[in-house]
Amino acid sequence: MVSPFQQGRAIVTGVKERFESLLVQGDRLYAGSSTGNLHIYSWDESSEDPHDAAHPIDKKALTRRSIDQLGVIRDINSLVVLSEASVTLFPLPMLSPPTQLPKSKTAFSFAIHSSIQRLLPEGSEQRASTSPNAQPIPTLVTQLLVGCRRKVVLYSWRDGEPQETKECPLPHSARAITFIDKDTVAFAYETEYAIFNIPSMSVTDIAPPTTISNITTTAGGALTGLTGYMTLGLGAKPKPTVLTLGEQEILIPREAEGCVVGKDGRPSEKSSMTWPAPPEELQFLKPYVISVLPAGTVPDPRAPAAAGQSFIPTTVIQVRSSVSAQPWQNISLPFDSSSPPVATSNAQIRLLTSSASASTAKSPSMLLVSTPVDRTTANTEGSTIWHFSMRPWAEQIDDLVRTGCYADALALLEVLETTAMPDKEQRVAKIRALNAVAQFQNGEFDSAIDTFLELDINPAKVVALYPENISGRLAVPQAGWIGLFGGPVDVQVGSKGNATPDVEHHTELAPADLLASISSGSIRKKFGFGIGALMGGTMSREKDDDSASIRSANSRVAKHGPHHDLHRSVDVLIRYLSDRRPKVVAALKAHNIVPSTPHEPLSSVSVESLLGDIIPSHVPLTALTPTQLTIFAQIVYTSLFKCYIFDKPGMLGSWCRIENWCEVGDVEQELRGLKKFNELKDLYHGKGMHEQALALLKEQSESETDTEMKLLPSILYLQKLGPEHLSRVFESSRWLFDVDKDMAFDIFTSEDVELPRHSVADFLEDISPELCVRYLEFLIEERGEIDVDMHDRLVDLYLDLTEEAKHHNNEEEFKTWHDKLLHFLEHTDYYHVDGINGRIYREDPDLFEARAILHAKMGEHDQALELYVYKLADYLKAEEYCKHLYAPQTEPNSQIFLTLLRIYLQPRMQTAQNLLQPALELISRHGRRLDSVKTLELLPPLVAASDIRPFLVEALRTPVFDSHVIKEITKARKDQIARKLMHLESRRVMVTTDRICPNCHKRLGGGVIAVHFPRGEVTHYQCRDPFSKKLKEMRH
């Protein structure tokens, strides 16, 4: 049971006067009486002896009538007193001379608010549009707002200096006033409520939701026949009250229900409060709402269960959480006794007053005044001032956590400063995590996941909240979730994310249950209706989540938990993991770590370590070590992968193709079970598990009958493997070559990667020399290979295959390989000519042409032509060879045809062929390219002139110029031109002061002149064009 307050103690007893107001200020306790006396007590809250806590110091008769309200304005050190419908300021400590506020007559209430504001020198507030050069000054601003008859009056001080008084008319009189913040105030009229804006001096009425109506008259009428303490207080009309719950919300009590309203006047999303009866007094001591409830309205938790429902016969102080609206503590009379309350000990409780701020290190406390109901006892004993101190903050928070009231614990921590709770941040983080678990249990997945993200919770713990098909070996039963996040293991979480309160101590009884239980149901029988009709229907329909039992709360958790709404919870988990994924990847990249970096697999880490502190919670990713980040990434990726398998299988393909940290062993069997073989193959590839991927492809190919469909997947996969996997490529491709060599050859023609060419050539030659030839041809023709060794290797293979075909008398293959050899030798230069020439057998008639090509490559044209003429007797190829090499005016290629003619006419080896005829044909076809004299010298004497007549005629027709004559003629021409130029340059004109321009007939003077060709006329420069035109006309 959560009990915020300790047992009360009487600090002032035997007071014969009726106190109407209380105020604690520093070390003084002020009590205003109904006769106008102000009792002043010394106040020592820390005193353990209640008799030493408050000692009477003075008693002053301040007014003639009741002191209705007290307050203090610190910056002017004055006591504010509301009495006789007027507000007066009494200087402390002497309380004289008094200063009556003249505009505050007919006052009903007042409220004081002090704040530090940053004001500009002229007094206005700093705003966004303020000049940046203006320096605001921190100023203590105190506001005193007085509610008078149909108006309010605002008094204010700035650093103790009074400001202009402002007034604003109201539609009703403000019976109670409370500040929400420095600019907003809430009013309680007689029956209505309003929000007042100070800067604009405007009022906005509050229209709270419809609640219980006419409870006083209806309930009073229904209970007319009841006597004793049961009816005490039910007929009394509570005074108007409004409470500030923070800087954004207020609590408006309407009869037995309290409505939470925002500063804009609209109902808040918070739960409303419902009391068993209208509270007689209300006070807010953050985060608790304290109410005084009449006798006979609150169930007695100490009553035996067999005796039926019974109620506390005395007035009860009920403490409720302002967050969950749940009652946490009931304090009944007598306060200083452990004996059960009795009706004769009942007293009237008034003037609930807080004694300290909830944000200080010292726990706040509460003061109140009790007066016996019995008049005789009241006259004898008098009134008593009681002091209730709060338990230490740490104890309250621990109790709230132990009972699962996480939202209340967080609300309590929110109002505490670090001085009051040194480990506040750590507690907030832990309790927020526990509250998120409670929200998760109740199906509030988005809110829970948002909290996990903000707190940087260990992802293993978040994943552990899901069933085994999502979390795998990390799965934790629901009963262990709270313990997993560091909370007590025996907490039962209700439907609001808080523990379900103990039925005996916390579950409040609605008015319907209260009245229906009286007299064993006689009222229901007598009037023929239930409390739903008695209370107008609203009070009897309190929210199910707040009034249900532990069993029903747990039933709701089961109905809305993640296991029963798995798809929605998995969608939220995907959002969580998708948020973590890029962040952990960025953190790993900062350490130059990628999935391919060697790391310890997730399966080697125990579950206890994963759910323990191996990845600390509440620590940003940037603060984790590389090992922790690696485990973090594996958890995130593996869990996200399982989520996709369960909820979004269509995304598996793209997910498997990207680089990832997924633990393959955790998802391998699931992908096989779903027949997601392509996704599994991509996953293998991404993790570098190429042996498993290729084995899977080979396994899948066994079910295919089409050769292309059987081999193509494996070929495409092998094409993507780089040189570091060369041995795997060779090993896994052999079965492909056994099935279809042509298709398998495509493995080594991929443009994606480049494999070591020599190694590939060795591998292919081992399978088949033809494949090696094909590969080398591909490299040379398609990839532009210029490596001499590769070219030499191809020539050797051509020679080997040519000899092999010749050996097997396969003319077709022989011709194919022989033609390829010749073509290659002729059209490429990247091979060792000497080595190839030495490799060829000199007397092999099938390789004479090859030898000729090699001699040509070495520049041995005589030997090449001799092979064409003497060995091959192919005169046309010899001529083509000469045509290819012939270049006029270039030695020695300009004489290549003469060389061929010499080979014809002066053979250096014996031959049975008659070479005269091809020589004459050569002369007839290429006579112009032959030197006439040398050709005639080579011809045998017996050759008739008629055989070479065309050659002789052509030789005679060719013009021959004497280069010396041409040189002399050219020189003479140049001398002639030089002399003419010298004559022209030697011509002069003389310009004197008397010379006249022939165009304008004015003297030339010293200006710019123009000389005209050929007679040398001289004109002004500006007259040159007209005069030239005139000369041209005269000549024509």
Q: Could you give the count of β-strands? A: 31
Radius of gyration: 56 Å
Q: What low-confidence regions span 5 or more consecutive residues with pLDDT below 50?
A: 211-235, 499-558
What share of residues is helical?
25-40%
Question: Can you offer a commentary on this structure?
Answer:
The structure is a single chain. The chain is an alpha+beta fold and 1036 residues long. 39% of the residues lie in helices and 18% in strands. It has 39 helices and 31 strands. The strands form eight sheets. Strands 10, 11, 12, 13 and 14 form a five-stranded antiparallel beta sheet that branches. Strands 1-29-28-27 form a four-stranded antiparallel beta sheet. A four-stranded antiparallel beta sheet has the order 2-3-4-5. A hairpin with a 2-residue loop joins strand 12 and strand 13 (161-162). Helix 29 packs parallel to helix 31. The radius of gyration is 56 Å and the shape is elongated.
